Automatic annotation (TrEMBL):
It comes from the Bacteria. This is Uracil permease. The keyword Protease does not apply. The keyword Acetylation does not apply. One of its GO terms (molecular function) is xanthine transmembrane transporter activity. PANTHER family: PURINE PERMEASE C1399.01C-RELATED. It comes from Paenisporosarcina cavernae. The chain crosses the membrane at residues 42-61, 68-85, 91-110, 122-142, 162-179, 186-205, 225-248, 312-336, 342-363, 375-393, 399-418. Its main location: membrane. Belongs to the nucleobase:cation symporter-2 (NCS2) (TC 2.A.40) family. It is a multi-pass membrane protein. InterPro entries: NCS2, Xan_ur_permease.
Length: 429
């Protein structure tokens, strides 16, 4: 048993304690998990449902050894938006299935050959700038949602609505900076709740749909629809699949951090191939049902670190709680009434944190920007990704934005030579 654990991975707490601890994990992931579908036009209920299902799948695949919770991935916000415009929500789900297939292939190769090759393929100098791109490329979306309202399909500035965004942002920042304990790990949820209360006070919330909703409701499913048009299908793959480069890197990072928290080496046991397979299967099932792609959640790793309760039973309980909550029609309808400006306010913080986490990865990786190789790779990734560069293969096929930046980053890392360090005697002391 880990010396620091209050309740270790295989320990089962009492029923009352397990319920409390499981709800705590559900609340930690709740805000971010429902935010992603609301930004891309999916159902918050289906996001909750599939997060619970994906987590249970992950636990089974990893032989109940890795206490991780799977929630909605922010890396796919822009790709799902683009894919939906290209082929509808059903088409975007097809893209999610293909992303999962990449996980399966990578997991199989790791199982057969070991994991060292993927560490060399995706070093911090490639992954960190791509993460920065994800955050900064989404920033115009956050600002538009925070400041404007939609009038006749046009964005119109409203100070009244913008004030709700500012209150939401302030509440989240204060929670992060000045609140202690587990609540400090839930700034998204706290910010949304306070922003929502403020929105009620200034009269910008419409309860019409809540009155009409039933107490029990089946979540809205968006079944994958394969368009047999080769052009549409190819574009879906080009939009969605390259982002797996980022999410696989994120997955590896989470496994390393989680291993440090609970004093285990999850890369070796149960193995990176198993955790990647679990993540991929979770994303695959989510895509089949109409939910966003999944990823292990840093928020829940934070809860583990603070509480030192690592029990797999608690994570399983959180998954069951999420599944049950997804069928509460009134609650889901209430969530749908959250003003876009509140979501915009919290997105300003979240998207900024995503970009900043990329910067942190560069610092933690001791990346030397005096090395011209590092400077070239990061510079090209950032400009191509944020600038929205496009490559048109024909009049119909194109690769653009984050997807293009990810692929070019991997290629540059593979082909650019490392600088030779000057070790001549004239520079010796």
């Amino acid at each position: 048993m880990s010396q620091s654990a209050v309740i270790d991975i295989q320990d089962k707490p009492s029923t009352g304690k397990m319920i409390t601890l499981s709800l705590q994990h559900m609340f930690a992931m709740f805000g971010a998990t429902i935010l992603v579908p609301q930004l891309v036009g999916l159902s918050p209920a289906i996001a909750l449902l599939t997060s619970g299902i994906a987590t249970i799948i992950f636990l089974f695949v990893t032989k109940f050894q890795v206490p991780a919770y799977l929630g909605s991935s922010f890396a796919f916000i822009a790709p799902i938006t683009y894919a939906t415009a290209e082929a509808g929500l059903g088409g975007a789900m097809i893209g999610s299935l293909f992303v999962a297939l990449i996980y399966f292939v990578v997991a199989l190769v790791i199982r057969l050959t070991g994991y060292q090759w993927i560490m060399r393929l995706l070093p911090p100098i490639v992954v960190a700038p791509i993460i920065i791109v994800i955050g900064l490329a989404l920033s115009p979306v956050a600002i538009d949602m925070a400041m404007n309202i939609q009038v006749d399909n046009q964005s119109v500035y409203s100070m009244k609505h913008f004030s709700a965004a500012l209150v939401t942002l302030a509440a989240a920042v204060i929670t992060m900076m000045f609140v202690r304990g587990t609540i400090s790990l839930m700034p998204v949820l706290v910010g949304i709740i306070i922003g929502y209360v403020y929105s009620l006070l200034i009269g910008i919330v419409d309860f019409t749909t809540v009155k009409e909703a039933s107490f029990f409701a089946i979540p809205d499913f968006y079944l994958p629809i394969l368009d047999y048009d080769v052009v549409v299908t190819a574009n879906l793959l080009l939009i969605m699949m390259p982002i797996a480069i980022v999410t696989i890197s994120e997955h590896i990072g989470h496994q390393l951090v989680l291993g440090k928290v609970v004093d285990r080496d999850f890369i070796k046991e149960p193995g990176l191939h198993r955790s990647l397979l679990g993540d991929g299967l979770g994303t695959f099932v989510s895509g089949l049902l109409g939910g966003p792609p999944k990823t292990t959640y840093g928020e829940n790793i934070g809860v583990l670190a603070v509480t030192r309760v690592y029990s797999i039973y608690v994570i399983f309980g959180a998954a069951i709680a999420a599944i049950g909550t997804s069928f509460l029609g009134k609650l889901m309808a209430l969530i749908a009434t959250i003003p876009a400006n509140v979501l915009g306010g919290i997105s300003i913080l979240l998207f900024g944190i995503i970009a900043s986490s990329g910067l942190r990865m560069l610092v933690d990786g001791n990346i030397d920007f005096g090395d011209k190789r590092n400077l070239v790779i990061s510079s090209i990734i950032l400009v191509i990704g944020i600038g929205g560069a496009k490559i048109h293969f024909t009049d119909y096929f194109e690769l653009s934005g984050m997807a293009l930046a990810a692929i070019i980053g991997v290629l540059l890392n593979a082909v650019l030579p490392y600088e030779k360090k000057n070790t001549s005697s004239e520079h010796s002391v």
